[in-house]
Design goal:
Layout (H helix, E strand, L loop, with lengths): L4 E6 L2 E6 L9 H16 L5 E6 L4 E3 L4 H5 L8 H21 L4 E5 L2 E3 L1 H7 L3 E5 L6 E2 L13 H9 L1 H10 L5 H7 L4 E3 L1 H16 L3 H17 L1 H16 L2 H11 L10
Parallel strand pairs: 2-3, 3-5, 4-6, 5-7, 6-8, 7-9
Antiparallel strand pairs: 1-2
Helix pairs in contact: 1-3, 4-5, 5-6, 9-10
Length: 266
């Protein structure tokens, strides 16, 4: 598909595979391709679920490309403005993943650190290999930095302030069992089961009513960003859209006929 991503689609399951520089360090080229890719998948009627994964066994993503960080001219009069502009530009890629109307699974087969953890936080499901080696966490504070891809907001919303703040401050790295216990990942899976369980989840989600899934995600995201009142307004509007959809008619008729529904996403 591009210089840093491959895309493969089979039976409605899209696999987006990152392959940047051996460790998927976060940089504008990778984020730009992710933004474009997820924007396209969100509007593709053939795509029903997305798996975000790495081509590398040891790394999902190691976080920011530190060589780019080190090259910043800190004495330039516009240094702060340029950094803010880049962070804002990068945020579009994270938002494209989070707002994708299809369910998105992060397949964490290796380290997901810093910006790599932030990529995972934008996904709807996080499945992590429990191989005694792979770690996940926001490690920016150990470098004198803070997260710049949304973790100060998304991690707190996901696991709560009491757990998230110490993890952010102490740059905590968690193995899969501890990450699952904290609620940071959904499942910690043995290496021999990992790929099969990711695929099984993807296939199950591919059979879901994708229109309803997208409307649920939109309502949840609006409520998280704007508060209860706006979230409820979005829910009411989206309920009406779902109720009038072909998938709703199929679902109701299938329930009454005691059959498995065959949703089309319409």
């Amino acid at each position: 598909m591009g210089q840093t991503l491959d895309l493969e689609m089979t039976a409605g399951v899209a696999r987006v595979t990152m392959h940047r520089g051996g460790n998927n360090a976060i940089a504008p080229d990778l984020l730009g391709e992710l933004e474009e890719c997820f924007g396209g998948l969100g509007s593709d009627p053939h795509c029903r679920v997305v798996i975000l994964q790495s081509a590398y066994e040891k790394y999902f993503s190691v976080g920011a490309d530190l060589s780019l960080m080190a090259s910043i001219d800190r004495l330039a009069p516009d240094a702060e403005d340029r950094i803010i502009a880049q962070v804002v530009a990068n945020a579009r890629a994270f938002a494209a993943i989070e707002s994708c109307p299809k369910p998105v699974i992060a397949s964490l087969g290796g380290h997901a650190l810093g910006g790599g953890c932030e990529l995972a936080l934008c996904c709807d499901y996080r499945l992590m290999v429990d191989d005694g080696r792979a770690l996940i966490g926001q490690t920016e504070a150990s470098l004198g930095l803070i997260p710049g891809g949304g973790a100060t907001q998304r991690l707190v919303r996901l696991i709560g302030r009491a757990r998230a703040l110490p993890m952010l401050i102490e740059a905590t790295r968690l193995g899969a069992p501890a990450a699952a216990a904290a609620g940071l990942v959904d499942l910690a899976l043995r290496p021999e089961d990992f790929e099969a369980r990711v695929q099984a989840l993807a296939e199950r989600l591919a059979g879901a009513a994708t229109l309803a899934v997208g409307l649920i995600k939109e309502a949840v995201n609006k409520g998280s960003a704007s508060g209860l009142e706006e979230g409820l307004r979005t829910e009411a509007r989206n309920f009406a859209r779902a109720a009038l959809s072909q998938d709703a008619a199929v679902g109701l008729m299938s329930f009454l006929a005691r059959q498995e529904p065959q949703f089309t996403g319409e």
